[in-house]
Amino acid sequence: MANALQQPEAVAGNEVLSDDQKRARDHARTTKERQRQALNLQRENILSQRTSNPSRRAALESALTQIEAEIEALK
Predict the structure, then answer these.
(1) Model-level pTM?
(2) Do 75 and 36 contact (CB within 8 A), yes or no?
(3) Residue range 4-48, pLDDT digits in tens
(4) Distance between CA atoms of 16 and 12, rounded to whole angstroms?
(5) How many domains does the chain have?
(6) Which residues form the domain of 47?
């Protein structure tokens, strides 16, 4: 709960955010960063795998393409 004497914080564009809005913004930012970290770990895992099986290689390439698209969508 916000203190009655607390001033809202001004941000770019003269927009004023309440404490709840700041918390929601920070939560969204941390959620996005965690998703990005998880996707990067998956990407690194795929890149570290070696296989001579063409079907497995195709599946890894497909998964890598999908993960890289999801990482790009988070930017």
Answers:
(1) 0.68
(2) no
(3) 555 555 555 557 778 888 899 999 999 999 999 999 999 999 999
(4) 9
(5) 1
(6) 12-74
